[in-house]
Amino acid sequence: MSTVKGKSENTINEYYRDLRTFFRYIKRSRKLVSADTEFSDINIDDVDLDLIKTLTLDDGYGFMLFLQRERSNSAAARSRKVSALSTFFKYLTNKKMVLESNPLEGLESPKVGKRLPKYLSLEQCYALLNAVDGEYKERDYCILVFFLNCGMRLSELCSINYNSIHDGKLRIIGKGNKERTVFLNKACLDAFEAYMRVRPVDGVKDKYALFISRNLNRISPSMVQKLVNKYLDKIGLGGQGYSVHKLRHTAATLMYQYGGVDIRILKEILGHENLGTTEIYTHLSEKQMEQAINSNPLSGVKQKES
Predict the structure, then answer these.
(1) Interacting residues of 59 by C-beta distance below 8 A, sequence separation 6+
(2) Phi, psi angles (nearest 5°) of residue 211
(3) Is 248 known to be catalytic?
(4) DSSP strand E in the chain: where?
(5) Residuewise pLDDT in 10s, the chain (306 residues)
(6) Residue 153 annotated among the catalytic residues of the structure
(7) Ramachandran angles phi, psi of 99, nearest 5°
(8) Which of 29, 75, 139, 197 is most deeply packed, by most CB within 10 A?
(9) In what order do the strands lie in the sheet with 179-183?
C-alpha cells in the first residue's frame, strides 16, 4: 500500500487497525482465547496462513454483524472495513497467490446513505473570524482563513511549510501523498503576511513549519482542533456538531453556492480522488429551494371568490 499504491501513513494505519479488529473477532468467535479476555487485549501475532485458509464468507458477515451490534459502527465505518478486508484478501489471492480462492470475495459493503454535510452559514463564518483574539490572534486568524477559503484537511494545514507558498500559490501534500496546488486569495495572503510578521523564529524546532505552537513546535492537529472549538464556543456553536472538518465542508459549500464553481474544479481544489465524493456539495440550500418554489408563476395564485 505504501510503495505501490502510494497510500499515506494514516490510511495504512487505519487498514491495519481494521484487520486487527477482524482477526481479534475471528479468534474470539472461534474460542481461541479465554472468554474473559478483553477484546482489546486479544493478541493476533499467532494468526497464520493455516487459520486464514479456514475463513469463509460467513465469517465476513458475522464480523459485519459484530461491528453493528457490539461496536455500534456506522454503515460508513463498516464499509471501510469491508474495503480493508477486500484489499487484504485480494492481495493474498492474486498477488501472493497463497490462497486458491478469495473466501471473502462475495462480501458486500453496507449501503451508505448520503447525508448533507454540516456547514457554517456565511454570517457564522464572519462571526467566527471576528471572534479571534488573544496572544496568538494572527496565527489563529490565518488558520481559520485558510480553512474557510481553501477547504483543506486538518492534516494538510498542520503540514504546511511557509516555503511552500510562492507567487500566491500553496503546494499541499494531501491524502495518499498526492500533491496539489491551491491558489491563495487576498484574504489568505493578507492573513499569511500578518502572521509571518509575528511568527516565532528563534528556537523553533521545525524551522520551515508555518504554524507554530507555544512550545515552538509545529502545531499539532489536536491543538488546531482545540483552538477551532474555542472560537466555535465563543460564537455559540459549541456542541452542535461543528468541527474542524466542518470548516472544510463550509469552504466547499460557499465556493459552490456563492461562487458558482464548477464541480470538477472544486474536486481539484479539495483534492478528491473521485468526482462522486465532491458531488455531495451540489446540495441545495434551504434558501435556494425557497427561491425555486417562489419563482413558480403560480406562487401568487388565489382562489376565485364565489
Answers:
(1) 26, 29, 103, 104
(2) -95, 120
(3) yes
(4) 165-166, 169-173, 179-183
(5) 877 777 777 788 899 999 999 999 999 999 999 989 999 999 999 999 999 999 999 999 999 999 999 999 988 889 989 999 999 999 999 999 999 999 999 888 887 666 666 778 889 999 999 999 999 999 999 999 999 888 888 888 998 999 999 888 888 877 767 778 888 889 999 999 999 999 999 999 989 999 999 999 999 999 999 999 999 999 998 877 778 888 888 888 777 776 666 667 667 666 666 655 555 566 545 555 566 667 677 667 676 776
(6) yes
(7) -120, 140
(8) 139
(9) 165-166, 169-173, 179-183
The answer to whether 272 is a known catalytic residue is yes
Concatenated DSSP letters for 184-218?
--HHHHHHHHHHHTT---TT-SSTTBSSB-TTSSB
Task: Please state the φ and ψ torsions of residue 209, each to the nearest 5 degrees.
Answer: -60, 135
| Neighbouring C-alpha atoms within 13 Å toward the C-beta of 165 | 20
Rg (C-alpha) for the chain, rounded Å, is 24
Cell of 132: 479571534
Answer yes or no: pTM beyond 0.90: no
Looking at 248, 249, 256, 267, which residue is catalytic? 248
Report CA torsion sign: 179, 254, 123, 235. Answer: negative
Active-site position among 20, 175, 180, 234 = 175
All cell numbers assigned to 88: 487484504
Annotated catalytic residue 115: no
Give percent helix, percent strand, percent coil of the chain, each to the nearest 5: 55, 5, 40
Give catalytic status of residue 245 as yes or no: yes
